[in-house]
Amino acid sequence: MAEVTIVGGGLAGMTAAINLAKRGHDVVVLEREERPGGSPLYHPSGQGSPLRLDAMRAYIGFDLTPGVEPIREMVEVAGGKAMPIDPSLINSYFFERGPRSTSLDAYLHELAREAGVEVRFATPVVSQEEMAQLPPRVIVATGLHFEGFDALRVPYLTSHHFTWKGTCDPDLNYVHMFHDTYTSDYGYTSAFRGIRYVHLFNRRVPISIAERDRFAEHVAKFDGFEIPEWNSFTFPVPAARPGTPRLFCGNKILAGTLAGAMDPVAFFGLHGALVSGRIAAMAIEDGERAWREFRRCVAAYPYAYGISRMMGLQPRFMNVIAFRTIFRRFGYLKPVHRIMQEGVPGYRCLKL
Ligand SMILES: Cc1cc2nc3c(=O)[nH]c(=O)nc-3n(C[C@H](O)[C@H](O)[C@H](O)COP(=O)(O)OP(=O)(O)OC[C@H]3O[C@@H](n4cnc5c(N)ncnc54)[C@H](O)[C@@H]3O)c2cc1C
Question: How far is CA 13 from the centre of its chain?
């Protein structure tokens, strides 16, 4: 029997797998899909995150450079007014997610294969009973999927999403972020490596068709295209409940979104997934040390949850005013960046 079993072959699961295999463990990853790259519902896609590549390499033990590219253009659209942001000021990178050979997922699976990790595709672990039958040394990193949360009874909020993905000119490279009264969270559009992606979400209440259509009007105005059709779905996101974020759940070790390693304000999860994957690997060898490191990384989460809660409670036009003020008066994302440094696992320890 394998020494360590990892459920979920996404960012956190593969980061843990690579680290453990390099340290001589036998590692088996049980992955729901039939190939690397997660759910075809929303991938392939370009996901963005602030990142310091050198600090991240030092922390997770391998280089991400082949899987990422700098974001070239960023625009904040708050209340229908566009404000350009210099992406280099916050070290922002695109990660290609999904099944294509150019994706970060494919790259991590290749690194894992070279390190000797065995990945069993089309092997979902969905129920409490199946979780209970797993061998003792298990990391669960099932991401933004209900099954993992439900099977381990980890509390979550149900977030509501409208998305569209299609193709575009491969030379386009941009992110536009939209804050407006159509959601208390935000919408964004991205174009990267020929993939165009549109996303509007709300972590608290469903988005109405009228709100979605107002967002589509903004996309038509600022991106210059009409959205032909929408996908709508829900998924679980970490909730501010006692014990969240959590590294341990019974005899299981958690990583990635399931561990709550998703920043509560801006909803970035890539960074936290990579960092918590490394911490989960540490937990296999030394639970006490990993717990201390996890707590250090998420120490400011309660404050970040507070800000997130305020964004949900305010009349939404207050958020628009707040975002306009932040971007206009301070020029760029410095205050948001500051919050993230305090509130995202790993940002703090890597000093982005
Ligand atoms: C549409 C979308 C856009 C996003 N955009 C951004 C962004 O721009 N910036 C950012 O920082 N973050 C973004 N995120 C969040 C980011 O993708 C996640 O935080 C990150 O991928 C979490 O890593 P993870 O390892 O926890 O989960 P994932 O990387 O999603 O990996 C989970 C893996 O587990 C597998 N799995 C699921 N259930 C089971 C099961 N029952 N049994 C076995 N395997 C299972 C899945 O197939 C998948 O391979 C976005 C998320 C989505 C869905």
Answer: 13
